[in-house]
Design goal:
Blueprint: H1 4-18, E1 23-29, E2 34-36, E3 50-56, E4 59-64, E5 68-73, E6 78-83, E7 93-99, E8 104-109, E9 115-120, H2 121-124, H3 128-132, H4 142-149, H5 156-161, H6 171-181, H7 194-213, E10 254-258, E11 261-265
Parallel strand pairs: 2-9
Antiparallel strand pairs: 1-7, 3-4, 4-5, 5-9, 6-8, 7-8, 10-11
Helix pairs in contact: 1-7, 6-7
This protein binds a DNA duplex (12 and 12 nucleotides) through helix 6.
Length: 285
DNA sequence: TCTAACCTGATC
DNA sequence: GATCAGGTTAGA
C-alpha cells in the first residue's frame, strides 16, 4: 500500500506515542508475519524501550534498548497504530504490543504481505533488503541518477520501481513523477537525454516532498495514524484517472501495463519518441 | 529483466 | 466468476 511519503508520515506520527515507552508484553503475534533473526526470540522484545524510529525507503526501523531493532514493512495493506487497550481491534490484526503507558501498538494487514522482524542491531547491517536499497530520492543528485540509469536495459518505469536504483518509490509516485517530467514510462531507462535526467531528478524530489506535505495519498487502505485520509490523491494527475482529461493538455489519460503494473499516462504530454521497447534492447554504446 | 506467486477483499 | 490492487522476490 504505502510508498515513501506514507511511510514517512507513519514514522512521524508514531514517534510521539512510542518513543521512550517500554514494551511490557507481546499480547498477540502471528509467526508468519512477525519474524525473528537467528539470535532473537519474540519475547526478547519484552522489557525493551523504544529509543528511536526512522525510515529507510519504505522500511520502518524501530531501535530498541538491549541492542534490538524492530523493522516493519507495510507492503500493500499493512497498518500500524497505537490505541487504548479497549479499542476494538481491526480485522487482520497480527501483532499487539502492550506499552508501558497502558496503550497498545498494533499491526494489522489484510493481505498479510507485510513483515515485522526483530533483529540484533548488528544483524541489521546484513539485512538483505537494506543492503540492496538505493539512495533516498532526496539524496539522489543528477550525477548519481545518471550513473544509475545509464546501464539499464529495460523501461524507465521498471527502473524507478526498482528499490536498488532509488529507495521508496512505488506505483503511484512513479506514474505521477513521469507525467510531471513529461516522460513516457516505456522509454528506455538507459537512453534518457541529459536534460531529461535533470528534470527527472528534480521532479522526483518535489513530488515526494509535496506528497508528504499533503499527508500522503489515500486510495483505499492508507490512513494517517490518527485515522484521517491523506490529500495528495487530489493532486494526482494520472494515477487512478484513466479516461479523464489531462490537466496539462485536455487529452485523455490512458492506462497500460508496464512490468506487470497498471500504468497511467497522458500520451500527449508523455510522448514515446523512440519506438517500441523491443527495438531498444540493443546493447548500448 | 520479467513473471508469477504470496494473500484478501472490492469491483466488475 | 474473473480481475485488479499502493510491494517484494524467487525463479526463469
Amino acid at each position: 500500500m504505502p510508498e515513501l511519503p506514507e511511510v514517512e508520515l507513519v514514522a512521524r506520527e508514531l514517534r510521539p506515542s512510542v518513543l521512550r515507552r517500554h514494551v511490557l508484553r507481546v499480547l498477540e503475534s502471528r509467526e508468519d508475519v512477525f519474524l525473528t533473526g537467528a539470535s532473537t526470540r519474540l519475547n526478547d522484545v519484552e522489557g525493551c524501550r523504544f529509543e528511536s524510529l526512522r525510515r529507510r525507503g519504505k522500511l520502518l526501523i524501530f531501535e530498541l534498548s538491549d541492542d534490538l531493532v524492530l523493522t516493519v514493512h507495510l507492503r500493500m495493506t499493512g497498518r500500524l497504530e497505537t490505541t487504548e487497550p479497549d479499542h476494538p481491534r481491526q480485522p487482520h490484526t497480527h501483532l499487539i504490543l502492550e506499552l508501558s503507558d497502558g496503550r497498545q501498538l498494533r499491526f494489522a494487514d489484510t493481505r498479510r504481505f507485510g513483515r515485522m522482524q526483530l533483529l540484533r542491531r548488528d544483524d541489521l547491517s546484513n539485512d538483505p533488503f537494506l543492503l540492496r536499497l538505493g539512495p533516498e530520492p532526496s539524496e539522489l543528485d543528477v550525477e548519481s541518477l545518471s550513473q544509475r540509469l545509464r546501464p539499464r536495459i529495460g523501461s524507465l518505469k521498471g527502473a524507478l520501481l526498482d528499490q536498488s536504483l532509488v529507495a521508496g518509490l512505488g506505483n503511484i509516485y512513479v506514474d505521477e513523477i513521469l507525467h510531471r517530467a513529461g516522460l513516457h514510462p516505456l522509454l528506455s531507462a538507459g537512453r534518457l537525454r541529459p536534460h531529461e535526467r535533470a528534470l527527472l531528478a528534480s521532479t522526483m524530489s518535489s513530488v515526494i516532498e509535496e506528497a508528504i506535505a499533503a499527508g500522503g495519498s489515500t486510495i483505499s487502505d492508507y490512513r494517517q495514524v490518527n485515522g484521517s485520509a491523506g490529500r495528495y490523491q487530489l493532486e494526482h494527475r494520472v494515477f487512478g484517472r484513466e479516461g479523464k482529461k489531462c490537466h496539462g493538455c485536455e487529452g485523455e489519460i490512458r492506462k497500460l501495463v508496464v512490468t506487470g503494473r497498471g500504468t497511467h499516462l497522458c500520451p500527449n504530454c508523455q510522448p514515446r519518441r523512440r519506438g517500441r521497447m523491443s527495438g531498444e534492447r540493443r546493447r548500448q554504446r
